[in-house]
Design brief:
single chain, 168 residues, mainly alpha, 5 helices
């Protein structure tokens, strides 16, 4: 009787085959999903690197541009200090000598700002702030006053009131 066909054993066998097929297909889908996820992660990582490099380049360009503007401004302060030294030459020659030295040092700072890398400049400023906080704070105050003077000396924007615009 062992050779007899039973519907239950046939159903159990078919169920086992279906389960094996489902497991095989699930394993294949899982492998496909893993591969796609890895590919997308690699692409996402590369896109993020490109974005970071682009942002870094743009920040570097902006910092270099501002550095040049700052160097020009510091140089104009050096020139003004040199002119002040000339004004003191006849009345107070010793004071003129000190002012002239200060002008030369300010010009040296302008040249250093123009020639050095932004990171190097920040590092030097941080080191100065750590080693000589009083000098750093005094310099910051002086630069603040100079910046305020510079901003006040800029010509005011010309604005037209609303009624004048309507008449034109």
């Amino acid at each position: 009787m062992s050779d007899t066909f039973s519907p239950q054993s046939d159903l159990a066998g078919k169920a086992k085959e279906v389960v094996r097929d489902v497991k095989a297909k699930a394993s294949g889908v899982t492998d496909d999903l893993t591969r796609v996820a890895k590919d997308n992660a690699a692409q996402l990582g590369e896109t993020a690197r490109q974005f970071a490099n682009s942002a870094k380049d743009k920040v570097g360009e902006a910092a270099t541009e501002r550095k040049s503007v700052g160097a020009d401004y510091i140089n104009s302060i050096a020139q003004a200090t040199g002119q002040a030294a000339q004004a003191f030459d006849s009345d107070l020659p010793q004071a003129a000598q000190y002012i002239r030295r200060a002008s030369e040092q300010i010009k040296g700072v302008a040249d250093a700002v123009r020639e050095r890398d932004v990171r190097e400049l920040f590092g030097e400023v941080q080191e100065l702030a750590r080693k000589q906080p009083t000098l750093f704070f005094s310099g910051a105050v002086i630069l603040g006053f100079a910046a305020l003077r510079f901003l006040k000396s800029a010509p005011p924007k010309q604005t037209m009131d609303y009624d004048a615009q309507r008449e034109e």
